[in-house]
């Protein structure tokens, strides 16, 4: 589980990769380091000075303190011959030319050494040396001049630099900083790709830049880059940006170990990035720098980028993976908690890490909340997938970066049409998350390994979402959305093609996604509500509540369907028909992009009043006035809309039935058994005994122009499967096979389909015969068990191809005939050529004689 976005610190940014998985309920992302060390409140017990080289001037200041939790010692060696004589450490030392040796426990071992240096009038830097060989200390000695000489390594692990001085004019820390990293921090070492790319060799492997461009003490952004070369195929994090759009002024480092950047407090981890100053954390037990940069996560107003792309100067860089993770303070309440979060996962065509969608693949996680009083618990999420190319360019730190501008991103999402969409609503306590609601991403699957254990079919279809968007497969991956985390409700739409529109249903008084084809509300581990748009008009009209026992066996089912002027309710013992006209929606809106839009949407939901409980479908029906017939001793099933309007269902009539109210459906004198009940657009019900499915198969071949199949020409085989019974046949497998005159068979079609009663299934399958003459075509259907339930075999005559069109057209021999005639035609042509040559020669001879 991703606890904190590691890119907010230099080392973590490089370790973070897109394969991070969500396992179990996510939690609020908190700061983390490889080996966090509790930071005590710093106490200085004594400061004293010595003259190391005997020149009469103090050149070593020793500070006894508890910086690592014990009787620790810091020795500061003068490097500029300017050390003042003082018992005040701040007066005696500086951060420009002194060397600081940090000795945990005062045992003459160095766990960290910092060499401060003024490079020139415009820049100072701190070169930080930590353990390199794994013995937990930094090897050094003091030479005859009284100066420390580091023998552990020639190369600092981290070099921090700033303009002119470490502080601003008002005494606060300067936020114009560059962190240059050479080699790995602990925690990054578990990535072999990083081990190969980042070695401690004197070359900068990665850099992080903080910028306060106007010098007002509020940094505008932090930018990090991987500089070490790495294979293009590796999934390394190569660039990141954190942007302080909310202009948060960081608090200074209360846990600083004298130098403002060294040390990290526990309070910083609980905030947002930019809440606190950048810090450097050291594991004093190992003598290693473990983290450097900003901590805290996320931010109330701002964004960050995490990409696998190198960020290069003078080149427009389009970040892949998380092109932007954007947070918005919709309420304007400045409570450190955003009300809107947008994650834009983006890959352009040809990106080896992406979906290879032309021209680009977008996946949006658009999550918002009505209010946020108890932490980052979100109410709604839209998952969107599309193919929109980013054309904007934003300049950050002198780099040209291809992103949708942060201020425009919500409207950019709302104004575009999308190819796939999911909608998730919190119906229970939910969970806290710094990155919105994870469930039901259209393409990405964070919990694939967990999913494959629970539902292999859903896991398989989760991998098919990308190819479906790309167009390489035509069957939607509906199985990916067959289950939901308890306490959440989800809906999906594959052929979406519209802007992200939401609506309020007056039936369940809840927010839904327009054009969703189905969905599920997982109430708890044992009960769920499933949704459907049975007539495919873009509005949900079917609610089915099911309960199951501990073995997964269904123990109770309730249904409510709202179609064609009726609300039809059924459970295990009754059918209730209520005649009422119900609008599919009482409020519609595009996904909220501003605080006003979010408040308007919430107001519309609240105006509908108390929402019915998940399983109380009968109450949902009773909300609407109208004639009602209650029939007992029956059970409804297999409800569906009719293509021409109206609906039908199967009714199981038991021995004892009763009816109250108007006789909308007349069952008087009907014997026990199973029947098909249908209601057309006129609202009149019919009742017919249910007959089992039986099938009539038919097929014929024709050219694309509608004539008989012709050899070597594009043609079609049209098939028709008709269900002669009244019982629907779901999951029928239909297969079409061709056999040539020499017995070679080839499968032309193999697919699954539902063959509904009264609605023939028809399909045209392309076929280009390679020869004329007779072909045998076999069409058959199999049920879910693999049993053949119908078959048909015909001989199809394929004619030879015409040389000319029209009534005087002659017939071109088939390929086989042409081959058989090729030899005599060849000799005939040769003979004709010889005769012509002899005649010409004879004519030339006579001319010359004349």
Radius of gyration (Å): 38 Å
Write down the oligomeric state. Answer: single chain
Task: Please count the beta strands (DSSP E, at least 2 residues each).
Answer: 44
Helix coverage percent: 10-25%
Distance between the termini: 106 Å
Shape by Cα distribution: elongated
Structural class by sheet pairing and helices = mainly beta
Total of helices: 11
Average pLDDT over all residues? 87
**Poorly predicted residue ranges:** 1-36, 803-832, 834-850
Report strand %.
35-45%
Q: Major beta sheet, specifics?
A: 28 strands, antiparallel
Q: Your description of this structure?
A:
The protein is mainly beta and 850 residues long. Helix content is 12%, strand content 36%. It has 11 helices and 44 strands. The protein has a 28-stranded antiparallel sheet. A 4-stranded antiparallel sheet has the order 41-40-43-44, with no helix packed on it. Strands 26-25-33 form a 3-stranded antiparallel sheet, with helices on one face. Strand 14 and strand 15 (288-293) form a beta hairpin. Helix 6 (448-454) packs antiparallel against helix 7. The longest helix is centred in the last third of the chain and has 35 residues, at 815-849. The chain starts with 9 loop residues before the first helix and ends with a helix. Mean pLDDT is 87; it is low at 1-36, 803-832 and 834-850.
């Amino acid at each position: 589980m991703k606890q904190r976005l590691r890119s907010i610190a230099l080392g973590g940014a490089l370790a973070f990769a897109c394969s991070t998985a969500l396992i179990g309920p996510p939690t609020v992302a908190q700061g983390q380091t490889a080996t966090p060390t509790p930071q005590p409140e710093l106490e200085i017990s004594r400061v004293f000075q010595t003259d190391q080289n005997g020149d009469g001037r103090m050149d070593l200041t020793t500070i006894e303190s508890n910086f690592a939790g014990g009787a620790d010692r810091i020795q500061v060696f003068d490097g500029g011959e300017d050390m003042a004589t003082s018992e005040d450490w701040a007066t005696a030392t500086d951060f420009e030319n002194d060397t600081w040796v940090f000795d945990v426990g005062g045992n003459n071992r160095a766990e960290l050494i910092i060499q401060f240096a003024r490079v020139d009038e415009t820049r100072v830097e701190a070169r930080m040396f930590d353990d390199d060989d794994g013995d937990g200390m930094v090897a050094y000695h003091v030479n005859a001049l009284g100066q420390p000489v580091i023998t552990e390594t020639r190369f600092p692990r981290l070099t921090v630099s700033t303009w002119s001085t470490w502080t601003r004019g008002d005494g606060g820390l300067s936020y114009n900083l560059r962190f240059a990293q050479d080699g790995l921090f602990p925690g990054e070492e578990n990535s072999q790709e990083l081990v190969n790319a980042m070695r401690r060799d004197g070359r900068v492997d990665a850099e992080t830049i903080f910028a306060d461009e106007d010098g007002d003490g509020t940094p505008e952004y932090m930018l990090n880059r991987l500089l070490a070369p790495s294979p293009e195929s590796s999934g390394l994090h190569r660039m990141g940006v954190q942007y302080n759009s909310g202009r948060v002024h960081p608090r200074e480092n209360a846990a600083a170990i004298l130098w403002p950047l060294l040390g990290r407090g526990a309070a910083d981890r609980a905030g947002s990035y930019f809440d606190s100053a950048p810090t450097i954390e050291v594991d004093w037990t190992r003598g290693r720098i473990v983290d450097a940069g900003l901590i805290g996560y996320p931010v109330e107003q701002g964004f960050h980028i995490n990409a696998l792309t190198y960020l290069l100067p003078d080149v427009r860089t389009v970040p892949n993976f998380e092109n932007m993770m954007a947070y918005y303070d919709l309420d304007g309440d400045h409570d450190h908690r955003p009300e809107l979060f947008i994650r834009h996962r983006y890959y352009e065509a040809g990106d080896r890490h992406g979906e290879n969608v032309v021209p680009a693949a977008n996946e949006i996680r658009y999550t918002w909340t009505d209010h946020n009083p108890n932490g980052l618990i979100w109410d709604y999420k839209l998952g969107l997938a599309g193919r929109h190319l980013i054309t904007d360019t934003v300049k950050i730190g002198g780099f040209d970066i291809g992103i949708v501008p942060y201020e425009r991103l919500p409207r950019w999402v709302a104004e575009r049409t999308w190819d796939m969409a999911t909608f998730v609503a919190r119906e229970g306590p939910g969970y806290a998350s710094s990155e919105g609601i994870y469930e039901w991403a259209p393409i990405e699957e964070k919990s694939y390994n967990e999913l494959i254990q629970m539902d292999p079919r859903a896991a398989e279809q989760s991998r098919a979402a990308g190819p479906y968007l790309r167009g390489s497969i035509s069957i939607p991956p509906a199985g990916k959305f067959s289950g939901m985390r308890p306490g959440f409700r989800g809906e999906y739409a594959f052929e979406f093609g519209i802007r992200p529109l939401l609506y309020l249903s007056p039936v369940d008084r809840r927010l839904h996604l327009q054009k969703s084809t189905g969905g599920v509300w997982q109430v708890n581990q044992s009960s769920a509500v499933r949704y459907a748009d049975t007539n495919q008009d873009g509005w949900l009209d079917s609610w089915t509540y099911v309960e199951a026992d501990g073995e997964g066996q269904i123990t109770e089912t309730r249904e409510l369907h709202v179609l064609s002027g009726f609300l039809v309710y059924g459970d295990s013992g009754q059918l209730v028909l209520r005649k009422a006209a119900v609008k599919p929606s009482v409020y519609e809106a595009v996904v909220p992009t501003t605080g006003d839009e979010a408040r308007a949407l919430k107001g519309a939901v609240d105006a509908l009043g108390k929402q019915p409980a998940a399983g109380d479908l009968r109450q949902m029906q009773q909300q609407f006035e109208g004639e009602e017939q209650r029939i007992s001793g029956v059970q409804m099933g297999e409800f569906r809309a009719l293509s021409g309007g109206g609906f039908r269902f199967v009714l199981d009539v038991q021995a004892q039935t009763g009816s109250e109210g108007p006789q909308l459906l007349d069952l008087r004198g009907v014997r026990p058994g199973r029947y098909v009940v249908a209601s057309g657009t006129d609202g009149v019900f019919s009742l017919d005994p249910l007959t089992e499915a039986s099938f009539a198969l038919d097929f014929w071949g024709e050219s694309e122009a509608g004539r008989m199949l012709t050899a070597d020409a594009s043609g079609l085989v049209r098939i028709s499967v008709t269900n002669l019974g009244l019982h629907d046949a779901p999951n029928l497998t239909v297969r079409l096979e061709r056999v040539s005159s020499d017995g070679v068979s080839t499968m032309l079609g193999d697919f699954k389909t539902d063959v509904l009663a009264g609605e023939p299934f028809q399909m045209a399958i392309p076929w280009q015969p390679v020869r004329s003459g007779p072909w045998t075509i076999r069409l058959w259907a199999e049920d879910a068990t693999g049993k053949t339930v119908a078959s048909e075999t015909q001989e199809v005559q394929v004619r030879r191809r015409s040389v000319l069109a029209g009534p005087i057209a002659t017939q071109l021999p088939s390929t086989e005939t042409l081959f058989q005639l090729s030899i005599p035609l060849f000799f005939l042509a040769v003979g004709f050529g010889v005769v012509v040559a002899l005649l010409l020669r004879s004519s030339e001879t006579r001319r010359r004689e004349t």
